[in-house]
Amino acid sequence: MALSTLDLTPLEHDEFVREHPHGHLMQTTPWGREKELTGWTWRTVAVGRTGADGEREVTGAALLLFRRTPVLPMALAYCPRGFVVDWSDGESVDALLAEVTRVAKENRGVLLRLDPAVRIDDPAVRPALESRGFTRTDPGDDAARTLAQPALRMVTDISDLEALHQELSQGTRQSIRKAEKSGLVYEAVGRDRIPAFYELMRTTGARDGFGIRSLDYFTTLYDVLSPTDDIVVSLVRLDHGAAAESARLKVEDLRQQLEKAQAKREKYPSEKADRQVQGLEESIAKNEASAAEFEAAHAEHPDGQYLAGSIFATCGPRGSYLYAASSDEHRNLRPNYLMVWRIMQDAAARGVTSFDFGGIDASEGLEEFKRQWNPERREYAGEFTKELRPLAGRLVDLVVRVYKRR
User: Fold this and answer.
1) Can you tell me the distance from the alpha carbon of 394 to that of 247, in angstroms, rounded to the nearest whole number?
2) How far apart are CA 402 and CA 404, in angstroms?
């Protein structure tokens, strides 16, 4: 049965993307609606077979984003993390590419760019693209930095959390336990708390030296993804009263340890015993000071204080950690560890099996945090480009390259 173009509803398109092994959040219609806020327009296309009974079988789909050039009537057509197709199915790839090309030209597209959510070692994807006129976009010396979507990812398997917890380093497990016992409260919140998350993003951007999206961008992201429960906005709040109580309990435990250590030192004097007693005394003083600090802060912030926040999105069994932010205060309490672990627990309970931390970052601090969660270093096929109108396409390609090196 021959393939033909299919006219899918947004719901049908999104269901196909979520269920396909090469599906990705950036190929869903909510992502297209979100990108409108930053100046893109979008279209979806699909191909498949229609049986005699009218039942349709979708074999390929794509969401296309269009960015018009400022002056000339030309546009870049970008298919983020697409196509959603079995790359070994040549008939479907041909049919989908033909329809994508038609729609791209209809929208003044002169350059078609895509970066499939397919591993680089997949034997079908690169030959399928290169044999159809695509070339691998030169990523330069740092693929993670110059590609529109980083080819190098850090992805943690969360299909078995008990096994994952055992595989985590002792330091990571200790950080989770410390956060759980330090008066921190994890909250999955709604739209009304996005301004609180945004303030944390502002703090993080100022601290780490990067620009951030607008508040409208984040509220729109929530609005387009929340109807299908594909987004989780998380905040970690410090309950100062609970933190003070935790510090007081710690002091009591340390005092008991100190009594035993002093008795042991009297019986078996040594430099080692002296150091142990001194260390316990210093820990007691430190926790007493923390308890007093938390009690004073509780009077000033009776409802608590937000220390960390994130936005996590899902597409079928795949989860993506889109944004994360943190306060400059109380970072020693490890709020981000509690946040990630609780998101993983909740996501796994919903059937999500992978947690994508995003691209390997130039920031050593961010990359080191991601490595704490036993991720797989995953490399996707990369970015490929095809000129739909060669002369105009080269001009747009030059503009894109200059923009990406700013």
Assistant:
1) 63
2) 6
Strand extents, DSSP E, 270-365? 305-315, 318-326, 354-359
**Rounded distance, CA 361 to CA 160, Å?**
26
Residue 184's φ and ψ, nearest 5 degrees, are -90, 145
Q: Label the pairing between strands 184-189 and 231-238.
A: antiparallel
DSSP result, 184-246:
EEEEEE-GGGHHHHHHHHHHHHHHHT-----HHHHHHHHHHHGGGT-EEEEEEEE-HHHHHHH
Regions of the chain where pLDDT drops below 70: 138-148, 361-366, 390-406
CA 144 to chain centre: 14
- Could you tell me how many residues make up the chain? 406
In what order do the strands lie in the sheet containing 152-157?
184-189, 231-238, 305-315, 318-326, 354-359, 152-157, 376-379
pTM for the model: 0.87
Rounded Cα distance between 165 and 168, Å, is: 5
135-136/384-387 β-pairing: antiparallel
Give the contacts of 345 (CB within 8 A, at least 6 positions apart): 161
- Report how far residue 82's alpha carbon sits from residue 17's, in angstroms, rounded to the nearest whole number: 10
In whole angstroms, give the CA distance from residue 6 to residue 16.
12
56 by DSSP, 3-state: which? strand
Phi-psi domain of 133 (left: phi exceeds 0; alpha: psi -120 through 50; beta: other) = left
371 phi, psi to nearest 5 deg: -65, -15
Structure confidence by residue, pLDDT tens digits, 236-257:
999 988 888 888 898 899 999 9
The answer to whether 93 touches 129, Cβ cutoff 8 Å, is no
Coil, strand or helix at 52: coil
